[in-house]
Design goal:
With about 350 residues, the chain is mainly β. It is about 15% helix and about 40% strand.
């Protein structure tokens, strides 16, 4: 649910509040706006500004103006869908029910026209973006104060990390380290066997800990789960920042990926922290020791050159998959400083 499909419409009678909403939204990376001020500010590079005048949206570039249709019944929706030309755009503002009518509009749209909808608050945005999996092409969200930009940011996702520097490192040691607090991450999505989370003891290199989509001889597959590692470990989030595993909470967006392949954002459904026997896996990164602490169990796997391997079968020799990242972090954000992590 990307912010690239969200346009912010400041809704305050106070021009200073509208300006504050616009300023904060720009700082947070939002690039699409619907503004009623005259004249509107010039768009910054990469921005889109649509001007609203008396219920009509002026797109510029000699494109036809769009009327915002207020829908209060099934019959009204059917009329607007029928009159929308192929290749055109239908803009809807709901006056009553919003979820089922939107699903009906998406089903009727197919690939025939673009569908824009108005959300009355940030909390309506995720449902509009995800209805029938595909959602509206654009969601215009009303914000009444700059603090609502923060709420919106927490509900929609920014761009995923543009590039992951995948490498293979040889395992040099695997050994028991006693009992520790390990963190299971149960997501709200189903993961493939080769997918997992990027986890490690130092932010400079994160190992790919794969999902439990395969299971073991004595446990069922749990494709929504990653037995991710010790509580102190870093995990890569969907926005490219890191967090300690023990700090994850339900609703957080984590990055799920696979070696050299695509990445996607999934939400944490819950975490479970329990005390279990642990092993430490050490890999050699050009003379630097990289470690990850994992539960010793057949269902816990690292991604290796030979596929996902259980921690019970790991030994020195095989190469593991992982990602190099900038090592210095402050509250999860990349910073430039001198740092050494051991």
């Amino acid at each position: 649910m990307s912010r690239e499909r969200v346009a912010i419409r400041p809704r305050s009678s106070d021009p200073s509040v509208r300006a504050a909403i616009l300023e904060r939204a720009r700082r947070r990376g939002f690039r699409h706006f619907v503004l009623s001020s005259a004249p509107p500010p010039a768009p910054a590079p990469g921005e889109t500004i649509v001007v609203e005048r008396e219920g009509r949206l002026v797109l510029g570039d000699e494109r036809p103006e769009l009327t915002v249709a207020r829908i209060d019944s099934e019959e009204a929706l059917a009329r607007e869908v029928e009159r929308t030309a192929a290749g055109g755009t239908l803009v809807i503002e709901w006056t009553a029910d919003r979820v089922i009518p939107l699903e009906n509009a998406i089903a009727a749209r197919g690939h025939r026209f673009s569908l824009w909808v108005v959300a009355r608050s940030p909390t309506e945005v995720p449902g509009a973006l995800g209805a029938l999996e595909h959602g509206a092409d654009l969601v215009i969200v009303d914000l009444r104060g700059p603090e609502e930009v923060d709420t919106l940011e927490s509900l929609v996702e920014g761009p995923l990390p543009a590039h992951l520097a995948w490498v293979e490192l040889p395992i040099v040691r695997v050994g028991p380290v006693g009992i520790g607090d390990r963190v299971i991450v149960d997501t709200t999505s189903l993961l493939r066997p080769e997918e997992g989370l990027l986890v490690g003891s130092a932010a400079g290199f994160l190992f790919l800990v794969t999902s439990e989509a395969t299971g073991s001889r004595f446990s069922r597959p749990r494709p929504f789960r990653v037995n991710a590692g010790a509580a102190h470990s870093y995990v890569l989030l969907a926005d490219g920042t890191t967090r300690y595993l023990a700090e994850l909470v339900a609703g957080d967006a984590v990055l799920v990926t696979q070696p050299g392949g695509g990445a996607r954002s999934v939400r944490v459904g819950r975490i479970k922290i329990e005390r279990r026997p642990m092993v430490v896996v050490t890999a050699d990164d050009q003379g630097v020791a990289r470690t990850v602490f994992l539960q010793e169990a057949e269902s816990v796997r690292l991604s290796t050159e030979n596929g996902p391997r259980p921690t019970t079968d790991l030994a020195a020799g095989p190469k593991v998959h992982g990602v190099r990242l900038p090592p210095a972090r402050h509250l999860g954000q990349t910073v430039e400083e001198t740092i050494e992590e051991r």
